Amino acid sequence: MHPALIAILSLIGAFLFLWHVVARIIKKLHPIPIPWRLALILDNPGRRRFLSPAKTIEQIGVKEGMRVLELGPGSGFLTAEASRRVSSGKLYCLDIEPVLIARLKGKIEREGLENVALLVGDGAALPLKEDSLDLAFLVGVLGEIPDKDAALNELYRVLRPGGVLSIWEILIDPDYSLRRTTISRAAKAGFEPFQQFGNFFVYVVNFGKR
After folding, report:
1. Percent of the chain at pLDDT above 90?
2. What's the start-to-end Cα distance of the chain, in Å?
3. Burial letters for 151-169: b for 16+ Cβ neighbours within 10 Å, e otherwise?
4. DSSP code of residue 11
5. Rounded to whole angstroms, how far apart are CA atoms 193 and 61?
6. What is the pTM of this model?
7. Which residues, at least 6 apart from 29, have a Cβ–Cβ distance to it below 8 Å?
8. What ranges in 49-191 are assigned the alpha helix state H?
9. How far apart are CA 106 and CA 142, in angstroms?
10. I need a surface site. Which of 41, 137, 163, 183 has the fewest CB within 10 A?
11. Which CATH architecture group holds 33-209?
């Protein structure tokens, strides 16, 4: 490889690394939801090459007939797959950003998904009844919620006894938390891990409600 090209690629790599470090520091100090324009960009064919919606939903444990909450669906990268998997059940998609919910509404209408309910709201104050869900999942979302403990307590409240909470994280996300941190935080709310997938770089932990 030409030395000049190596130098350019090295500079780009160093810039991306520095941006990631700075972004992580900022997000740790001030957790905020991903900007809605960036959330739209994330829903692209390239992302599907390393994050298969079918495999992810399978690991999360979404099954036929369930009442499921997708907290922070963004532009709906996983929504269609989750909707098809619950089939006769119900999928609730809740996001704090109204623009994303509006975009997602158009997407589910185009795909003819009739078992999806869209909600605008805060993960720390879920507009759902106690013990009303079989499963809830967050994909790269927990770190964006300012009050994570309140959100986990709310998820505990709305899940039925024996219900499942699934948390997915990936290292390249500025909001990424170590697996042990996620497990410890969920345990404070009353969740116990029973199934895990992945590795240090990307993982899924499924928790049961005690």
Report:
1. 71
2. 56
3. bbebbbbbbeeebbbbbbb
4. H
5. 13
6. 0.81
7. none
8. 53-60, 79-86, 98-110, 148-158, 179-188
9. 25
10. 41
11. 3-Layer(aba) Sandwich (3.40)
